[in-house]
Amino acid sequence: MADEVVTPVAETKIETAVQPSENPETETKSSETAAPKKKRFVKTESEPAAKSETKEEKVSAVEDARKKKFMHLKMFNLWSTDFVVNDPGLKPYMNLSPVLVPWSAGRNIKKQFWKSKKSIVERLMLKIMVPGHKGKKHYHTSGPNAGSLATIYSATKRTFEIIEQKTKKNPVEVLVRAIEIGSPREGVSYIEYGGVRYPKAADMAPQRRIDLALRWMTQGAFVHTFKGKKHLWDALADEIIATSNNDATKSACLAKRTDLERQAGASR
């Protein structure tokens, strides 16, 4: 009789011991399915900066791929443009991409200040076309050069050949060094009070620095061809070489730069 009573109790104990082991699994599964955790995305200030960096990286990667693709091209099929601009302020505004013929035919004039997308040699050629203009005034005739693309193209090529003969260097690099040295760092702006204009010193924009350096070099060369018997290519080559060597006695560009910076220093 004692054995018959003990055996059912033992079976119930086993069943009750098994049931708690199965229940936690079902409970955890039901809790996971019933109330899943939601992920919260919090916007931080670092996200827009990361997006802008990725865009800049994409643009730089495309430009690097383009340069590698057209690296075999040389300026006038003679000189490479594989060198670095030393002035960090002028570097984004000097286009040294490899191109065979430096002429875009007005492709980059749809937006303001897109002339920095032109090759730096093409910008020099455009300044040679209008060397008789001083600001908004016309003080010398520039008829032989205006609109004559073939004439200016051959004159620029011959100028670079003379620079290479005299300096034994890459003439495109010599031009870039001349722009870096001959471009003014500071200029003069005018403020008007009660009908009286007062000069005030101001920092020069990098785009204008390049424009003024190219204008002064071409105008200095044109003066020698207008008054003397020098050819355009000889006068322009001497002007570029003197400016790149920082020779103020022979460079008209450096004379203009020192005069403008002297006026800016006096009007502080």
User: What separation lies between the terminal Cα atoms?
Assistant: 119 Å
- Provide the helix percentage: 55-70%
Order of helices and strands: HHHEEHHEEHHH
The CATH architecture of the domain at 74-184 and 208-259 is Orthogonal Bundle
Enumerate the strands of the largest sheet in spatial order, edge to edge or round the barrel.
Answer: 1-2
How many helices does DSSP assign? Answer: 8
* Unreliable segments of 5+ consecutive residues: 1-7, 9-19
Strand content: 5-15%
- Which word captures the global form? globular
Number of strands: 4
Major beta-sheet overview = 2 strands, antiparallel
Supply the CATH class of the domain at 74-184 and 208-259: Mainly Alpha
Q: What is CATH's topology name of the domain at 74-184 and 208-259? A: Ribosomal Protein S7
Cα gyration radius (Å): 36 Å
Going by CATH, the homologous superfamily of the domain at 74-184 and 208-259 would be: Ribosomal protein S7/S5
Average pLDDT number: 81
Structural class: mainly alpha
